[in-house]
Structure to design on (270 residues):
């Protein structure tokens, strides 16, 4: 995704131009390019030849820092066409999923492509992410976002209602972020490798209940758990370190389950 830290930056490289917490811009360096901000502008040609970790002067004074983009930067710099899953939630989902370099995973819906980006980064160049969405315009937005992070090569995007099935099998994990995941359980069950997990994200407790009841009644899943992640940031000042006075009170809930073979299945059919 990114060059080694010792290499100098050139046209085509991606840089997170960081001024402060509210001003962070994911930029692909191109000839003639200019990044304009309310704190001043930076010409791409003034970034070329520097290294990650360097700083560059802004036209109106002060500096911008040149950082190597991390996948987490996607959340804050992507064009969003849908609600997205935030790091506090997707990080737990990814750890629970057990995926790593070389894994094959599916995701629906793709939405703005934030989770797709994280999955693509985790599975690496040898892995595959199969991303499905019922809306072509959402897929196009996600495609453009993934391209900006340089991760499109390991992602297969397809317009599809996943309640009607997906054309892949033997997956290491399936991620769902859609309004009615309980209607996609047959699809998930067929596509997963036996014993591998599904990770479901839903914004309301009503959806958690419907999902868990459906998972139990399906018969093809076990080890079913529901979670909510609360994250509190701290303001650190000498003698006055404390939690930030505002925190995000609600995003969504996570449901985890593993595929089991509810009926004996011949090894050839798994
Ligand atoms: C909240 S967005 C997903 C956001 C994504 N997780 C992210 O972080 O960028 C939900 C997406 O699910 C898609 N969707 C809804 N029902 C679907 C279905 N049956 N099959 C495939 N996609 C579906 C919607 O079009 C929408 O783009």
């Amino acid at each position: 995704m990114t060059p080694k830290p010792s290499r100098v930056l050139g046209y085509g490289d991606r840089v997170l131009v960081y001024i402060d917490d509210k001003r962070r811009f994911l930029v692909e360096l191109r000839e003639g390019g200019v990044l304009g901000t309310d704190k001043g502008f930076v010409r791409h040609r003034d970034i070329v030849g520097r290294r990650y970790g360097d700083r560059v002067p802004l036209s109106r004074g002060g500096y911008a820092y040149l950082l190597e983009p991390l996948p987490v930067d996607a959340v804050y710099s992507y064009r969003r066409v849908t609600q997205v899953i935030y790091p506090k939630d997707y990080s737990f989902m990814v750890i629970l999923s057990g995926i790593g370099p070389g894994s094959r995973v599916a995701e629906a819906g793709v939405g703005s492509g934030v989770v797709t980006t994280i999955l693509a980064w985790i599975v690496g160049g040898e892995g595959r992410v199969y991303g499905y969405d019922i809306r072509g315009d959402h897929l196009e937005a996600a495609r453009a976002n993934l391209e900006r992070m340089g991760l499109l090569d390991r992602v297969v995007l397809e317009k599809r209602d996943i309640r009607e099935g997906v054309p892949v099998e033997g997956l290491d994990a399936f991620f769902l972020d859609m309004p009615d995941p309980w209607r996609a359980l047959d699809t998930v069950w067929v596509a997963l490798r036996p014993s591998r997990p599904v990770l479901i994200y839903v914004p309301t407790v009503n959806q958690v209940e419907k999902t868990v009841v459906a998972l139990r009644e399906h018969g093809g899943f076990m080890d079913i758990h529901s979670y909510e992640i609360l994250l509190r940031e701290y303001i650190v000042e000498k003698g006055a370190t404390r939690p930030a006075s505002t925190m995000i009170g609600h995003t969504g809930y996570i449901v985890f389950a593993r595929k089991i073979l509810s009926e004996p299945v011949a090894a050839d059919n798994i």
